[in-house]
Amino acid sequence: MGMIHCEYARLAADDFDKARTDPTWALEHIDELAGEWVQMDLPAQEARYFSIGTVWGPLHNVLRTHGEMPVDPVQGGAALGSAKGITPVRYLGPEDVEKAAAFLVGTSFDTLAPLADTTRVCDEEVCPDPSEHATETDAERLGQAYGELAAFYGAAAEAGDAVVLMLN
Domain map of the chain by residue range? Predict the structure, then answer.
């Protein structure tokens, strides 16, 4: 099995409504957004598609250890479609995106950094090979990914967008 990446897509209200009724269209639309993101190399706050790469495991563990997330911005949400990747494609509606953004933007990574546990780098039920995330426990890398994730969710909340989450 290759490296597992955590990827996100922002969907405007009309696209979000269509995605919930037509998951096939949703996955095709998300693939289009991914192609645009790769070509344009946009910063997280401007991107409609975004990835935190393989750092999702250690970052998720830091967030869960903190324990005060109102919603899970890494593996939370409701199922949107079948498992195209490692887990089913999931989404957070605009209200949950606002909650996630408020937490991420309002909580500095400096507050979270002491919670990083280099022995727990991945959720075993999702990632059977934690060794693939071992290099992702560096505090600088976690802080960078956290800042990008906060910027992405902040922009999505400001626009009233839903966010689709995928582990691929």
Answer: 6-167
Cα-based angle 68, 9, 88 (whole degrees, multiple of 5)? 75
Q: Which residues contact 168 (CB under 8 A, 6 or more apart)?
A: 4, 5, 7, 84, 85, 86
Strand ranges of the sheet holding 6-11, from the earlier edge strand across to the other edge: 49-53, 6-11, 162-167, 90-92, 78-79
17-53 pLDDT tens trace: 999 888 888 888 888 888 888 788 889 999 999 998 8
What pTM does this model have? Answer: 0.86
| DSSP character string of 68-98 | --SS-TTT-SEE-SS-SSSS--EEE-HHHHH
The domain defined by 6-167 folds into: Hypothetical protein yfbM fold (3.40.1760)
Distance between CA atoms of residues 82 and 91, nearest Å = 12
Report the residue count for the chain. Answer: 168
